[in-house]
Design goal:
Helix content is about 60%, strand content about 10%. It has about 650 residues and is α+β, with helices and mostly antiparallel strands. It has four domains: about 160 residues, Up-down Bundle (Four Helix Bundle (Hemerythrin (Met), subunit A)); about 200 residues, no CATH class; about 100 residues, no CATH class; about 100 residues. The longest helix is centred in the middle third of the chain and has 33 residues. The radius of gyration is 27 Å and the shape is globular. The relative contact order is 0.08.
C-alpha cells in the first residue's frame, strides 16, 4: 500500500504543478494578486506531496519491501541501515525523485521568503519552477516510476553498487543536487525578468542569495565527491576529469561567473543582459549534466544505467528548456538597457575579465567532455581526453584569473589607478616573489608548474589578507577602531575574502601534493620493508575477516619514522556478494604535513601482494580550501542585505481580488 500512496502523491503533485504553471502566470499578467497567492500555496502543497512520495520510497527501502522493483534492484536485507537510506538516491529513479523534491523545496522557499519581491515577479518565478518540475514529474511517473511493482516478490534484493556504500557517497548526491537544482531559481528569475523586460539592482540583489546558496552546496557536493574518489577508489588521486565530474564542475564555473556578474548589476546597473544569460546557462549546464549521467551514453561509476527512452526524453526536455530560454533571451535581451560606463582599470573591468576567463575555462572543459562522445557518434572511433589536455588548456586560462582575483578587491568602482593599487600590494608582491624563488630552489630541474602554483597560491592568500587589513585599517588606526571596523564590516565582503583565501589554499594543496608526492609500486611478502620518503612501511602479512555484507582480505603495515613505530595501517580488498564486486579500501593516515596512503592489490602467484604506497604532502590543504570556499559563501549569505532585499520605492496598488492594499 505504501508504494501506491507514493505513486498517488506523485500524480497529485503533477496536477498541482500544472495549475502552478498556469494560474500564477495569469495572475502576474493581470496583476491579480489572488491568483499569485494561489500559486504560492500550490508551490507549498507540491512540496508536501513530493516529500510524502519520497518518504514512502525511503520506508520501502528501510523495510526491504522487495515487491517494489526499484528496491529489489538496489537494496538487500543485510545492507546497513545507512546504505538502505542512501540507496534511495543511489539509483536513477530514486535520485530523480530527490531532484524533484529539492526543486519543489526551492520553489516553496521562493514562495515563502518572497515578501520583499514584486508580486508579479514572484508569480512568474514560481510558475517557471513548476514548469521545470512538471517535466521531471512526467519522466518520473511514465518512464522512471520508483514505485513499480514486481511479481512474484523476490526473497532478497540485488543490493547497491558497493562503490556507493560509503558515507561520502551517502551525502554527496543531496549536496550536489542542492547545487544543481538551486540554479533553477536563478534561471526562473532570469526568464521572469525577460518576460517582464526589467532587470535592475533590486533584481540582482534577489538573484544573488539564491545563486550563492546553490554555489555553496555545489562546492560541498563536488568536494565530497572528490574526497570519496580519493579514499574509496584506491588509485591515489582525487580528480580524474571524468565526464561526470566535469558535468558538475561546469555549472560551478558558470555559477561563479554569475555571482560576480550580479555584483556589477547590483552596484553599477550594467552587464544586465550578460548576467541574465549566465543565469540561463548555469541551470542549462545542470540539465546537461543530468543528460550525461542518465542518458546511457557514458559508462562511469558516477552514471546511472538508463534505457534509450529515458535518454531521448531528457534530451528533448533539455532542447526544449535551453532552446526556449535562449530564444526568449534573443528576443527580449536587447531591451535590457544598461548604464554605468567604466574605465579599463576598474572593479567592473576586473569582474568582466573574471567572467570571460571563467566562461573560457567552461568552454575548454565542455570541449574535452563532449568531443569523444561526438566523435564516437559520427565515426564510431573511441578516444579519451585525459588530464594532459586539461592541464595544458585549463591552467593557462585560470592563471590570469587568479592574478586578477588577488588584486580585484582593492580596485575601485568606475575608475581606478593601477599604480596606486599596486603600491598597497608591495608586501604581497615581495612575499610572492620570495615564495617563488624558494620553490624554484627546491624544484631545480623539477616540475616548473610547482613554481607557478606556489606563486599563484601565495599571491591570492596574501592579497586576500592585505585587502582585509587595508579595509579595517590595521596599524593605521587604534586597535579599538580596527575592531569596530571588523564588527561593522559587511559579511558579504568578509565571505568573499574567506572564499578567495580558500581558493589560494586549494591551489597550494594541489600544487604541493602533485609536485612532491612520493609513490612506490611494488610486490611485497611478509617482512619486506619499503622506504617512502622519511617513512618505512613494513609488510606484516594479511588476514581474512567478514564485514557486515562483504568478505575482506586485510593487509597489515607497520609504519616507522626512524626507529619509532608511528601507526599500523590496514588497507583492504573487499568482496561483496550482492551484487558481486571486488573493491579496494585504501588505508590513509592523515598527518599535519601530509597523508600516508597504502593500497593492497591482488595476490600474485609467488605468494606476494601488489601494493601501492604514497606520501602526499599538504593534500589536506585541498579539503581545507574547499571548506573555506563554502564557508565564505555561507558567511556572505548571512549578510543582512540579503534578508531585507534591495530598497525600492513605495507604491500602493489596490488588490481588486482580495480588497487589500499592497
Amino acid at each position: 500500500m505504501t508504494a501506491e500512496i507514493g505513486q498517488f502523491c506523485m500524480i497529485l503533485a503533477l496536477i498541482v504543478a500544472a495549475t502552478q504553471i498556469i494560474i500564477p502566470q495569469i495572475g502576474a499578467s493581470k496583476k491579480d494578486y489572488g491568483l499569485i497567492l494561489f500559486g504560492k500555496y500550490a508551490a507549498i502543497i507540491q512540496l508536501f506531496l513530493i516529500l510524502a512520495a519520497f518518504l514512502c520510497l525511503m520506508y520501502l527501502y528501510i523495510t526491504s519491501d522487495f515487491s517494489v522493483l526499484n528496491v529489489w534492484q538496489n537494496s538487500h536485507s543485510e545492507k546497513p541501515l545507512l546504505y538502505k537510506i542512501s540507496g534511495v538516491w543511489g539509483n536513477h529513479e530514486g535520485s530523480l525523485l530527490l531532484w524533484v523534491l529539492i526543486l519543489a523545496l526551492f520553489g516553496a522557499a521562493v514562495a515563502g521568503f518572497a515578501k520583499n519581491l514584486p508580486p508579479t515577479l514572484v508569480g512568474r518565478v514560481i510558475s517557471i519552477q513548476a514548469a521545470i518540475g512538471f517535466g521531471f514529474l512526467i519522466l518520473l511517473i511514465f518512464l522512471s516510476n520508483p514505485f513499480a511493482r514486481i511479481s512474484p516478490t523476490p526473497i532478497n534484493g540485488n543490493g547497491l553498487n558497493p562503490l556507493l556504500q560509503d558515507p561520502g557517497l551517502a551525502f554527496h548526491p543531496p549536496f550536489l543536487y542542492l547545487g544543481y537544482v538551486g540554479f533553477s531559481v536563478a534561471f526562473s528569475f532570469a526568464i521572469a525578468a525577460l518576460i517582464e523586460g526589467k532587470v535592475d539592482a533590486a533584481w540582482a540583489r534577489w538573484v544573488r542569495p539564491w545563486t550563492l546558496a546553490a554555489w555553496c552546496f555545489l562546492t560541498i557536493g563536488i568536494s565530497l565527491g572528490s574526497w570519496w574518489a580519493y579514499y574509496e577508489l584506491g588509485w591515489g588521486g582525487w580528480w580524474f576529469w571524468d565526464p561526470v565530474e566535469n558535468a558538475s564542475f561546469m555549472p560551478w564555473l558558470i555559477g561563479t561567473a554569475l555571482l560576480h556578474s550580479a555584483i556589477v548589476v547590483e552596484k553599477r546597473d550594467t552587464l544586465k543582459s550578460w548576467t541574465v544569460l549566465l543565469a540561463i546557462l548555469a541551470f542549462s549546464f545542470s540539465l546537461l549534466g543530468t543528460f550525461i549521467v542518465r542518458s546511457g551514453i557514458l559508462n562511469s561509476v558516477h552514471s546511472f544505467a538508463s534505457d534509450p527512452g529515458r535518454g531521448v526524453f531528457i534530451l528533448g526536455f533539455l532542447i526544449l528548456t535551453i532552446g526556449g530560454s535562449l530564444s526568449l533571451y534573443t528576443w527580449r535581451a536587447p531591451k535590457l538597457k544598461g548604464g554605468g560606463l567604466f574605465a579599463p582599470i576598474s572593479r567592473e573591468a576586473s569582474l568582466v575579465i573574471n567572467n570571460l576567463l571563467l566562461m573560457s575555462a567552461t568552454a575548454t572543459v565542455l570541449l574535452g567532455t563532449l568531443y569523444p562522445l561526438i566523435l564516437d557518434a559520427i565515426s564510431g572511433e573511441k578516444v579519451s581526453v585525459g588530464p594532459p589536455y586539461y592541464i595544458g588548456t585549463f591552467i593557462p586560462i585560470m592563471t590570469p584569473l587568479v592574478v586578477v582575483m588577488g588584486i580585484a578587491p582593492m580596485i575601485s568602482w568606475k575608475r581606478s589607478d593601477l599604480p596606486g593599487v599596486l603600491s598597497r600590494f608591495k608586501a604581497c608582491i615581495l612575499i610572492t616573489i620570495a615564495a617563488g624563488m624558494i620553490t624554484l630552489f627546491f624544484t631545480y630541474k623539477g616540475p616548473i608548474l610547482a613554481v607557478l602554483g606556489i606563486i599563484l597560491s601565495v599571491w591570492l592568500i596574501s592579497g586576500s589578507i592585505a585587502d582585509f587589513v587595508e579595509r579595517i585599517k590595521l596599524f593605521k588606526v587604534s586597535y579599538r577602531d580596527s575592531l569596530m571596523r571588523i564588527i561593522n564590516y559587511p559579511r558579504s565582503a568578509i565571505g568573499g575574502t574567506i572564499a578567495h583565501a580558500g581558493v589560494g589554499i586549494l591551489i597550494f594543496g594541489i600544487t604541493i601534493s602533485s609536485a612532491f608526492e612520493i609513490e612506490k609500486i611494488q610486490s611485497v611478502k611478509n617482512g619486506d620493508r619499503v622506504q617512502v620518503g622519511d617513512y618505512i612501511f613494513e609488510f606484516k602479512g594479511t588476514e581474512i575477516f567478514k564485514g557486515p555484507n562483504y568478505d575482506a582480505i586485510r593487509g597489515n603495515f607497520d609504519v616507522y619514522k626512524g626507529k619509532n613505530l608511528i601507526i599500523k595501517m590496514q588497507p583492504e580488498n573487499r568482496k561483496f556478494i550482492n551484487p558481486e564486486m571486488i573493491t579496494t579500501e585504501a588505508a590513509i593516515y592523515p598527518k599535519n604535513l601530509g597523508d600516508l596512503y597504502a593500497v593492497l592489490g591482488e595476490e600474485n602467484s609467488n605468494n606476494t601482494f601488489s601494493t601501492r604506497l604514497y606520501y602526499k604532502p599538504m593534500i589536506n590543504c585541498l579539503w581545507i580550501g574547499c571548506l573555506l570556499m563554502a564557508l565564505g559563501g555561507f558567511v556572505s549569505l548571512s549578510d543582512r542585505k540579503y534578508r531585507i532585499g534591495a530598497p525600492r520605492k513605495k507604491h500602493t496598488v489596490k488588490n481588486k481580488t482580495l480588497g487589500i492594499t499592497n
